[in-house]
Amino acid sequence: MDIYASDEEKGEDIKRWWREHGSSVAVGILLGVLMLLGGRYWLGYQQSVAEKASAHYQQLRTLISAEQMVEADDKIQQLFGEFSSTPYAVFAAFEMANLTLASHDISSAKSYLQWVVDNAKLSAHTDIARLRLGQLLLDESQFDQALALTNQTDLESFISLFAELRGDIYSAQGQTSEARAAYQNAVLKLSQGEPRQILLQVKLNDLAGSNDG
């Protein structure tokens, strides 16, 4: 805009600019308001979902404590169906996995752990489920399936645990060289002074002098 123009000319320039760009400005303002309102609504909705999921999880624990397992199963299915995106559904799956495992219902325990692997949002939850599932598969001598689970972590804190599980799988198969390498890798991934070093060293000692089957 010409700084030397008269007030009337400046007014005409403003009117002309508004005719050309006013719609875009109005739309931009409207979108900004909608985004702000939408963000607030989303945060409120997420909080509401989390509160409802927490209530259902507490009800599940109460049913488990009362040994009302039919009702508990209905409650966890509701958590899986309506609140699968919340950590409370994951907590419930872990709790049911532990309970069914204690009851020697290995099939159900694996099913709950697999649900966590397939649905958990946090990598740590997924890796915990993979570790437990891998150990159950090892106990059933399903070596290939168990081994496949040990190569899927991206979290540094789980690398040693998965390497140890891989060593256990190879050891159970009589593959001593592969087991030794896995245990050694597990040791290397530990921080100095961690208690698991002792256990891993015992496993390495047990392999000493062994030959591949």
Walk me through what this model shows.
The chain has helices at 7-65, 69-82, 87-102, 106-119, 123-139, 143-149, 156-172, 176-188, 196-207. It is mainly alpha-helical and 213 residues long. Helix 1 runs antiparallel to helix 2 (69-82) and helix 3 (87-102) packs antiparallel against helix 4 (106-119). The longest helix is centred in the N-terminal third of the chain and has 59 residues, at 7-65. The termini are far apart.
Unreliable spans: none
What is the overall pLDDT average? 82
| Head-to-tail CA distance between termini | 87 Å
Order of helices and strands: HHHHHHHHH
CATH arch. level architecture: Alpha Horseshoe
Structural class: mainly alpha
CATH homologous superfamily grouping: Tetratricopeptide repeat domain
> Outline, from the CA principal axes?
flat
What are the defining features of this structure?
213 residues, mainly alpha, Serine Threonine Protein Phosphatase 5, Tetratricopeptide repeat, 79% helix
Question: In a nutshell, what does this entry contain?
Answer:
The protein contains 9 helices and no strands. The protein has helices at residues 7-65, 69-82, 87-102, 106-119, 123-139, 143-149, 156-172, 176-188, 196-207.
How is the topology of this model organized?
Layout: H1 7-65, H2 69-82, H3 87-102, H4 106-119, H5 123-139, H6 143-149, H7 156-172, H8 176-188, H9 196-207
Helix pairs in contact: 1-2, 1-3, 3-4, 4-5, 5-6, 5-7, 6-7, 7-8, 8-9
